[in-house]
Amino acid sequence: MKLGLWVFRAVFILGCVGAGLAAHRILDDAGVYDQQPEIARKWLPFMIFIFLVAGVLTVVLDLLFSRRPVQSFTAVFFGLLAGLITAALFRLVLDATPLPKAYVNAAYLTMLVIFCYLGVTVIIQTKDNFRFIVPYVEFSRETRGHRPIILDTSVIIDGRVADVCETGFLDAPIVIPRFVLQELQVIADAEDKVRRKRGRRGLDMLNRLRRNRSLDVIIHDTTLAAGEMVDSKLINLAKLLDGRIMTNDFNLNKIAELQNVEVVNINELANALKSVVVAGERIAVDIIKVGEEPGQGVGYLDDGTMVVVDGGGSAIGRQVNIMVTSVLQTSAGRMVFGRPVDAEPAAGRAAGGRRA
Q1: Claim to verify: residue 252 and residue 336 sit in the same structural domain
Q2: 148 contact partners, CB below 8 Å, separation of at least 6
Q3: pLDDT digits over 58-102, tens only?
Q4: How many beta carbons lie within 10 A of that of residue 339, not counting itself?
Q5: Domain span at residue 261?
Q6: How far is CA 194 from CA 89, 188, 250, 268, in A?
Q7: Mean confidence (pLDDT) of the chain
Q8: 184 shares its domain with 255
Q9: In this structure, are 251 and 334 located in the same domain?
Q10: Which tens digits make up the pLDDT trace of 147-170?
Q11: What is the C-alpha separation between 344 and 33, in angstroms, rounded?
């Protein structure tokens, strides 16, 4: 795509040279050089140089404000149309001036080339947001990586998204809606100390994301319907941008799924990265408290996975070797069930050993 845009820029510069030749011919046909014909030969290279410099400067200005250039026929069409309309309006202004017609034609030709070029390049580089300018017109999205990920308030305060992004696993654009940023500011200014601390943590996480040069972090300013809840605004924005919501809010997760909006749950990602424990495996675990059922003990693996040990209630404060009997995966996380190896019957230990 970048090669195509550079080819267009090269053609534009050549067109500027051609426009200089055409402007010189227009002035010659208008009789500007009739009084001093030798001036015509001197003005020809000067006109070409002027138009060439104007073309190069236009390209340089375009590069200074470029984003991610891509090219498509539809964008070129709308860009040329916008350039023609703008140049026509400029011509109306020139016709109202007392300038000679030859100068008016030369200026119109110059503005026509420049406005057409700027119209094409501006729409090509901003076509992802073009539907917000012209309703019901939308180009195919071409962004780096996958569809954009929209962050909600809870996942920003959680902070793990910044750690994940710093690993380089996320290459999709990160979208932070303006109303989420405003909600974080309200939380950070709250009177409650805990709430204020959470809000400031969220703002710190945003600064970490903005400093990550490998990410495209976009503060989105699109105005949605006033009075909507933040969750509803997130879902509507995800539909508008064809994006995904990253959250650890259980309710938002379910509501988004009901409305066919894809959700990236940071808790599910954390659970997927936990070490795999299978039934029949022997592991060591520290029993730290009693369970809900009589005789049960509860411990945790290094990654935070809860382990429920039948018959482990008497081993609180000690490390025991257990045989995993089952693993339960829930939306809240993974739970491991087992029993102490020393408490197994001999036949059970033999069968367990064969299973392992």
Answers
A1: no
A2: 172, 173, 174, 175, 218, 241, 242, 243, 244
A3: 887 777 655 444 445 566 677 778 878 888 888 888 787 777 877
A4: 19
A5: 149-272
A6: 59, 10, 22, 26
A7: 76
A8: yes
A9: no
A10: 888 888 888 888 888 888 887 777
A11: 110
